[in-house]
Predict the structure.
Amino acid sequence: MHLDMQRALFDVLLLWILTAPHEFAHAWVATRLGDDTPRLEGRVTLHPLAHVDWLGTAILPFLTSLLGAGFLGWGKPVRTDPRKLKGGLNGLAVVALAGPFSNVVLAVILAAAAVASVHAAPALTGFAVEGVRLSLYLAIFNLLPVPPLDGSKLLLAARVPQVVYMELARFGFFFLVIAISASDLGRWMSEWSYQGSQAIFSALR
């Protein structure tokens, strides 16, 4: 088995950079919808350390990338109170979608930076290109309807019974690890993110 330490560290660094805007988007939208919980917990910020979950943003992404077992990672979830959100559970769905949407926006920004720097700063171009792919991967990954990912909040918005959601939450972490490491799910998401990045670059050219 080939262990690519440099690649694993590179992926974790990119994840830290991409996680802050993702979690900030959740916090900002929740605040705009009337929930002050993210503001009170210091989450309406782009500072990476405010959004780090050491297991999900460092240990697991490093190990899965190092072992070539797909890529598994997430930031510290932004807590929201549906009772305070305009629209209740529907507002919760909007907050949940804000994170993946921010990743798509960031992918476009990084792609534009890559195109602009291709001759002046090739190293920056390479970093930005990888950022586009990983940002799209995170958008797709976070839409999986498994707690603690953003897609799971859509289940609540769809009025899935709370008891069912809680059972999913109990085993969500293990399901994600198995699904990424022992199935083709990780490969499929990588292919989709690669195809998405190609589409963005084609549009920019």
Q: What stands out?
A: The mean pLDDT is 90. Residues 5-204 form one domain. The chain has one domain: 5-204. The CA atoms of residues 64 and 71 lie 5 Å apart.
